[in-house]
Structure formats: C-alpha cells, structure tokens
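Usage

Read records sequentially. Each one opens with the input sequence:
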Amino acid sequence: MAVKIKRERPDQRRHHRVTAPMYVHVGGQKYRAADWSLGGLRIDGYAGELPTIGAELPCQLTLPFQGFDVTFDAKAEVVRLEAESRMVAFRYTELGERERELMSHFIEELVRGTMVDVEDTIQRIDVPVTPASLQPDASPAKALPTRRRPARALVMSAVYAVLGFIVFGYTGLLLYTNFYRLEVQTAVIASPVETVASQAEGRIKIGGLKPGDPVRAGDTIVTLVDNQLEREIELADIAVKEQKAKLIFMKRRQADELERLQSFAAIDLKGAEQIRIEIDGLTSQLHLAEAQLARLTSLQKKGFTTDTKVDEAHKAVIALRHAIEGKRVELRSRVEIAGANVGKRHYNGTNLVGEIGQIEAQVRLAEHEIQLAHQKFLALANHRARLAVTAPFDGTVLELPHVDNGHVRRGDVIAIIEQRTKRHVLAFLNQDEVMRVGIGDDVTLFVAALSESLKGRVVSIDRTSGFITEQNSRQNPGYRWRGPVDRSAKVTIAFEDPARVTDPERYRSGLPVIVVFPQRSTSSLFASIRGRIDRAM
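and closes with the structure output:
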C-alpha cells in the first residue's frame, strides 16, 4: 500500500500530515486514522454519539512499526466535527516524550523516503533505460608487440590491478561484515550472582570476610543481631531459670510434707496402739462387770440383794460393751484410712489433713513448665541462627554493602555472592540487531583484555525484559515501549568448551567481550533465497 504525504503551508500547520496506518481505540471502538501528525489526528465514520468540541477523551494509539505493533496511551481534545460525514478531529493534550520521539522518527523516515513499500521500490527499478552496447572498443595496443608496449603503462596497470584487488577485497570484507556478520562490542563475561537481603532489622557482624574472599556452601558470611530477638532470648533464659528455682522450692516443700506425714504416721501408730490398750482395759472391766452381774443375779434369787443393784450391774455391762465396740470401730477406721492414705494424708480423728498430693502435682507442673520454657529458648536461638547469612554455594563474596556493626533494615542487601565456577557471556543489543540473531547460532568471542578468541553458542534471547515495561492496569493491560536505539535486548551465550574458562582469576566477571554473530536476514524473501543458496552449497 502506497504511503501518501500531505504538505501544508507553514502558516497553517506545524507538522507533516501522513496517511500511514495508525489505529485508534477511543470510545470503546477501534478506528483507522484518516490522517495524523505529531499534533493530532482525524477519524472518518465515527460510530456512536459524536463528542462535543473541547471534550477531552482518553485514547490508545497503535502504530505498525518494523513488523510489530507499538501501542501507547494518550489524551486528545476534540477540535473539529462534521456531523454529516461523522468526522472528528483531535488534538493531543497528553503524549509521552518517548511516544512523541517514536512518532517523529516514523514521520521523518516517511518524509525522507527511506520507508516505502516493496511495490513502490519495484516500480522505481522497472523504469526503462537506453540500452548500451556491450562490445568493447577497439584497442590498438593489442596489435603492438610486447617489446614495444610502454613500461609505464605496464607498471600503472599492475598498480591499478593491486589497488583494484585491495578495493574489491575491502568492499567484499565490508559486505561480508555488514550483511553476513554482526559484531557487537557491548558484551561481558558473567556468572550466576546471588543477592542476599536482610530478613529483619538489626545490626550486622561481618567477621573477617571481605570482598573477594572465597566461601564454601554453608559458611556464615554475615551474622544479623536483632535487638528485639536478643531481648526475647534473654527473657526466655531468665524464664527457664525461674521455673527451675520454682521446681527446687516445690521439691523442698514436698520433702517437708513427707517428713510431716511420716510424723503423722508415727502419731497414727501411737493412737492406734492407745486404742488397743483402751480396748483391752475395757474388755477387762467388762469381764469384771459380767462377773459382778452374775453374783448379784445369784444373790437376787436367794433374796439377799435388791433388783436395783442387779439393774445397775446390768447397765454397767451394757455400757462397757458399747464402749468396747466404739473403740474397735475407731481402731478399724484409723487402720483403713491409714492404709488408703499412707504417705498422703493424716486423719486427726475429725478431718483428713495433708497437702502432699497437691504439692506433687505442682512439682510435675513446674517440670513441664521448665520443658516448655526451654523449648521456647531453643526456638528463639534457632531463629537467631537462621538470621545468619550463609553461602548458598561455593563462590566468592563480591560485595558487602554495609560496614561491620552497621544498622540494616528488613529487605536491605547485605551480601552479594558470585558462583565463580560457572561462566557465560551476556551481550546487550538494540532492537534492530536482536532481530538478526537466532537461538543456537555459533558465535565467535574475542576477549580483548586477554587477546584470546573463543567459540560460543546462543542459548537464549530476551528482548522484552529490558525493552518494555509491563502495565498492571486492569482496564488497560499492555506494554510501554522504550526507544528503538536503546540496547535493551539481552542475549545469553554459552561457551562451546566450558573447560577452557574454569580459571576464575583469568576469566573474571565483567571482562569485556566482542561477539561476532552470523547475521540473519529480517526479510522473508532474502531469507528464503539465502537458505536455498546454503542448501545448494
């Protein structure tokens, strides 16, 4: 499709107006701009209700640029309307600096004529020209014998031949370099790097390490001292000691209570023995009372005594029997209680006394509390050990951003560790160059600092991480593109022979490298022709 350019008088318009494809998202619809410039754009056939003049609308502009669509946001004000043709003209009110630079570059290329369609190029080539004769002019010098030819002419011919060989050779070298090879000087030797951030706020203790020292996996690099954590550890240690002191006190109480119960047990034994003695005494009195009752009963039958004395003797016998039975019941009760509560309680004849059971429960509780306090202390100590920064792999300390005993906050970088056993090359290309590089291409690596050439292979191409910024807006997800001349594409190159670059002192990270890529064509036509030539060869 031919690209048309409109030129207006300088007193009417400030910018060139072009009809190159530009798509506009406005009012929920997508339109192709009838024409546009750096100052605004015009849309024909506007759908829906026409906006009012002076209304400011958000819009999204899309430019087809070098094989991909470039989309960016802008705000425009309605400056002109035609209700019959439903034409709306806008003027940009908010447009980013990079977006304006990209549109300016696009229009300048159109104005200069460097950006045209293939059809237009073929039409320019297919212009008829006047044919010329291919027959060389007659040269009388060929008719002359060799001995009569001028020596100066021969010398000059040789000089011209040599110069022509040099010129054509240099031209061929330039063509080969520019069309078949791509040389990039923005590359460095790199290795995996681990950045360690602080997990808490506090002071750091570096010890004897310094940047450049080697470390092994698991070695402590930086110790983080958290004042709040240290306070909790000290309180936990005090709590353990407090519980141990409490346990010692409860064990002493337990020992005292056991001695007290032993004394009570001796008293119980003495009381039981006293009751047995009383029972024996009452039993003897009962025998005497029964004998007295038998004598009085015999005398009563003979009429020598009265019935009153016999009744009194009988009452005495009954009272003694009841007393003996009461003492026996008391003795059995004491024996049973003493057997059931031996070492625990004491029966004083009225109530059970003794706190040995409660004291033993308190002793067990104190022992359990000591275990819990010790576990809390160990948990805090383990957390303190986890705050220490250890090396995740065998490597080298590249940087320690903070001084010894310096204060850091949560998330601050406190150490940078490099894995020096692995090496690769990072090449930074612009967006035109990265289009000519492919994954798996064999490349030549020249380390200028070492004057050494190596072989490598492209393993990954990252065009987007440095070239675009992701927009997290839910209403307008997309990308915001950076300038096309920025070296924002990253190409990772692996060494063909990793054994040659195992010396970490020789092949240090950061050494500059010149990378020579086999250049690929960005045109599908040229790429197919070149592919056929390569297969034929």
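Summary fields computed downstream for this record:
- The longest strand covers residues 68-82.
- Residues 227-302 form the longest helix (76 residues).
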